[in-house]
Amino acid sequence: MQKLAVLTSGGDASGMNAAIRAVVRSAIYLKMQVYGVYQGFEGLIAGNLKEMTLGSVADIIHRGGTILQTSRSESFRQEKGIEQAKKNLLEQGIENLVVIGGNGSLRGGYEISRLGINVIGIPATIDNDVVYTRSIGYDTAVNTVLDAINHIRDTASSHGRVFIIEVMGRDCGEIALAAGVAGGAESILIPEIETDLEQLITKIQAGMDRGKLHSIIIVAEGVYPVMDLQNYILEKTGQDTRITILGHIQRGGTPTAADRILASQMGKMAVDCIANGQKNVMIAVREERLLTIPLREVVNGSKTPELEMFELARILSI
Ligand code: F6P
Q1: Which atom of ligand 1 is nearest to the CA of 129?
Q2: Pairing verdict, β 49-51 and 3-8
Q3: Which residues does ligand 1 sit against, CB inside 6 Å?
């Protein structure tokens, strides 16, 4: 009987549970034995594995977070940790590992694949910064931010204020761009494009001159310190300015239909890859079609920003 283990790693993302469910159920459907690894790579090093049944994944498709829990494992960056993880898998006769997570987790998967474990990656991170694919959790996060923008827009208009909304994304502006465009933000600051403060001020001022009721500025984390930005806007325009930092609100919550469907499709395909003898790939989605990309290419690639979206936002927010 073929055996596989599944783990979630790095920052949790809504839809991870739907992916775990799909992996477990597809594996059982194909008469494979499937183990859940608790607390990501940290748990793999500690040998924290448990066999999963159909019931282990019942009633989780709609839940955010991950029932397997997760970690950002420092030990797995070291040779010793990876060796121990491999040993724990092989001791149980497990030669296949499904890794659900973002860039750091897929790199971890790649490293253990180099020691002979067959690793199938499933991209899951709100940041959507994994190359060649959309990631599970991104759609939910964007919708959470959009919901927040809608709420803030009400109060911003009522008071005639400028609002700075800081969103997550690590080094990637995808959440900021998508939520900014969908939410009709006046300005979007992302790490991939140099911030033009003068243009930002000109826009706020032009809006005020036209009698606009508010200005909403979406800032991807790390691009510009939001307190400094608040002071700068106040100094240059005299506009009452408030800050909302959305933080980890973006990581939780019930996954959207799009994330649940993507997670279900990717989870099943990961198991199909194992059944068909495909090795060391990541499942990706492009133009609504699933495909596989060698893990080696994933860890060596870097995502190019959606500059067309930035241009769209710029034009529509005049
Ligand atoms: O990678 C997902 C993410 O939420 C990033 O957007 C953010 O920079 C980081 O994780 C926060 O990590 P932590 O939850 O460990 O503070």
Answers
A1: 1
A2: unpaired
A3: 11, 72, 102, 125-127, 168-170, 221, 251
CATH topology of domain 3-137+255-299: Rossmann fold (3.40.50)
CA distances from 31 to 2, 240, 276 (A): 8, 63, 14
231 three-state secondary structure: helix
The pLDDT tens digits for 106-136 are: 999 999 999 999 999 999 999 999 999 999 9
pLDDT in tens, 2-41: 999 999 999 999 999 999 999 999 999 999 999 999 999 9
Contact yes or no for 84/42 (Cβ under 8 A): no
- Which phi and psi angles does 37 have, rounded to 5°? -100, 125
Backbone phi, psi, residue 97, to 5° = -135, 125
Which is the catalytic residue, given 127, 129, 139, 259?
A: 127
Please check whether residue 43 is in contact with residue 7, taking contact to mean a CB–CB distance below 8 angstroms: yes
Say how far apart CA 33 and CA 54 lie, in whole Å. 11
Residue ranges of the domains in the chain? Answer: 3-137+255-299, 140-251
What fold, for 140-251?
A: Rossmann fold (3.40.50)
Confidence grade of residue 318 (pLDDT, cut at 50, 70, 90):
confident
Q: Is the pTM of this model over 0.90?
A: yes
Ligand 1 atom index nearest CA of 251: 4
Candidates 73, 100, 168: which one to mutate for ligand 1, based on the most atoms within 8 Å of Cβ? Answer: 168
Q: Please check whether the two domains, 3-137+255-299 and 140-251, share a CATH topology.
A: yes
Residue 129 burial (CB count, 10 A): 21
Q: What is the pLDDT of residue 306?
A: 76
